[in-house]
Amino acid sequence: MKKSARRAVIAGNWKMNKTPCETTALINEMKPLVKDADCGVVLCVPYVDLCAALEAAKDSNIEIGAQNCHWAKSGAFTGEISADMLVSMGVKYVIIGHSERRTYFGDTDVTVNQRVRAALDAGLTVILCVGEYLEQREQGVTGELVAMQTKIALGGVSAEELSRIIIAYEPVWAIGTGRTATADQADEVNGIIRATVKELYGEAAAEAMTVQYGGSMNAANAAELLSKEHVDGGLIGGASLKAADFAAIVEAASR
User: Fold this and answer.
1) What is the pLDDT of residues 99-137, one digit of tens each?
2) pLDDT at 175 exceeding the cut of 80
3) Where residue 182 sits, what CATH number does that domain have?
4) pLDDT of 178
5) pTM of the full predicted structure?
6) 208: domain range?
7) Residue 141 DSSP label
8) How many domains does the structure of the chain reveal?
9) Residue 35 placed within a domain
10) Which residues have a catalytic role annotated?
11) How far is it, in rounded angstroms, from Cα 58 to Cα 63?
C-alpha cells in the first residue's frame, strides 16, 4: 500500500451467504472489532440482506454495498435490480464484473461497462473486478487481458468519475480455490492495472486509484499482500464471513 497517495479499502463479498438475521448478528459482531480501522471497510451482501445490513451498520464505520446491478433504470428484466433502487435504500457501493458473474451469468466486457455506467450515473461507488483464468496466465497473456478488461470497463468514464471507482484484481484461478497469487504476482498485475489507468487518465489519477487484490486473501496472508506498493486493500470472500478473520485483514490494512 501507498497510503500517502491513496486510501486502502477492505471490502467483504459475502456472495450467496447469510440470511437477514444472520447478517445482523455478524455485522454486530464485526463492529467493535473494526471500529478503529484506518482504512475503508465495506460489506457487499446479497440483495435480501441489504436492509438488515444497512440497519446493523448504522452509526458505524462499516459501509454497505451490493454485489451487482443492472444497466437499465427499469424495465422487463425479471429478477434484476437497478442502481437507482440500491441508492434509494442507502447503499453506497456495488461490485461490478466479478468473475462469477462473467462465468456463470453471461457478463461480458461490454455489459460490465454498461453496468459501471449505470452505477456511476446513480451515484454509487464501483468495485470493478478484472482478472484472468488459469489457462490465460499459463499462456502469458495476463497483462494484456487485464489491461483490455480495464480499458473496456472504463469506456466513457470521466476523470472526475474515476474517483468513484475501485479496481479489484481477482485472478479467477485463485477465487475460492485456496490458491493465492504470490505477493509479487499480485503487485505485478496491480501495477499493470495502475499503468493502464495512467495511460488513460494520467499519472495523478493512477497514483490516486485504489487497486485491491481479491484472490483468497485471508488473515494469514493479508499482511504480506498488503505490504506491496500496488496492493491497496482486498476484496475478501470466505474470510469476510468470519468476524475475527475479517477484522484481522482490516487490522493489517490499517498499519
Assistant:
1) 999 999 999 999 999 999 999 999 999 999 999 988 898
2) no
3) 3.20.20.70
4) 74
5) 0.96
6) 9-253
7) -
8) 1
9) yes
10) 98, 170
11) 9
